[in-house]
Amino acid sequence: MKLEPRRVEEVLRDPARVRAVLLYGDDVGLIRERGARLVRAVIGGADDPFRLAELEREGFGAIPAEMAALALTGGRRVVRVREATDAATTAVQAALSGRGEALLVLEAPGLASKSKLRALIERASDAVAIGCYPLDERGLEQVIRSTLSGLKVSVDDEAVGWLAGQLGSDRAVTAGELEKLALFVGPGGRVDLEAARSCVGDAAGLSLEDALFAATSGDVAATDRALELAMAEGAANVQVVRAGLGHIQRLQRARALMQDGFSAAEAARAARPPVFFRRVAAFTQALNLWSPAALEWAANRLWDAERACKRTGAPADTIARNAVIGLAQRAMVARRR
Fold it and tell me: Which SUPFAM superfamilies does its entry note (predicted)?
């Protein structure tokens, strides 16, 4: 079923009544955070290999067997599927039709609104679909205020407005920056504009998504800075490449709208998943820079990079970085024409 927003926290705290949870949308950080919360809700803080199975794209076929398996140590198991796509639909349907008490957590960034997997979950009585999207400006300001208040810190209106302009593209990055800011001013302190700028600075909100938008806009320097930060914060090489592929595929879908008569600006506004409002200009610019053929080249480059990252002994971090930087260099050339 499609879960009402007011019931999201209830399921995240206690998913005992469901067998599968689909986390979809454009906020990758929020998807990962909620996936981790569901795991903790079932098996606690311990990383118990007998109760947790983690699968990726190549492991979709194992979903039914993992769902039916029993933990040797007892207790409910969790099957966590990263980067779930429509290719997992048949296996998920078989798992939900079979036996097993495990919780299936499907993390699906960028899943299309007409996805077969999403339709399956929304039809099922024992499964729920939860959308994970970036906040709008008003919602972001509320999160900034409530988060800092929860950390025993007050904040000036001017600082809230500035922070809202820097944060919000990724919920996990936003939370991390606000926690750092709270530590900077200390318990009982007050965040003013000077403190916000001193602590958060120009690096605020830089993330894997920042790197990808910078790359397809042709900003090589910003791509390199954002990639360095994202990987320093734990973004794995395969994650970088797959996120890049998802970004290119969203551009391909929007570019197809332009072939149907949409302008670049109209296609950006109609893009699915929706583009975060502060990134619409960069997305529109990318649509004007990248032809369908160029986007196909980019997708193939990223597929090749993913395969190369998985080869034993390969310098995977370098391969992933070069794949994304290569996109930025191509877009930069297109900008100069």
Answer: P-loop containing nucleoside triphosphate hydrolases, post-AAA+ oligomerization domain-like
Which residues neighbour 108 within 8 Å (Cβ) at sequence distance 6 or greater? 22, 23, 24, 31, 83, 84, 85, 115, 117, 118
Is the CA virtual torsion 32, 35, 37, 43 positive or negative?
Answer: negative
Neighbours of 253 (CB within 10 A): 16
Structure tokens at 204: 């605020």
Q: How do residues 124-148 score in pLDDT, each as one tens digit?
A: 999 999 998 776 667 788 889 999 9
> How many angstroms separate the CA atoms of 158 and 163, rounded?
9
Does pTM top 0.85 for this prediction?
no
Terminal-residue alpha carbon distance, the chain? 49
Phi-psi region of 23 (alpha: psi -120 to 50; beta: other; left: phi over 0): beta
On whether the CB atoms of residues 238 and 271 are closer than 8 A, the answer is: no
Q: Which residue has the tokens 């197809």?
A: 256
Domains of the chain: 5-131 (3.40.50.300), 137-203 (1.10.8.60), 208-336 (1.20.272.10)
The amino acid at residue 50 is F
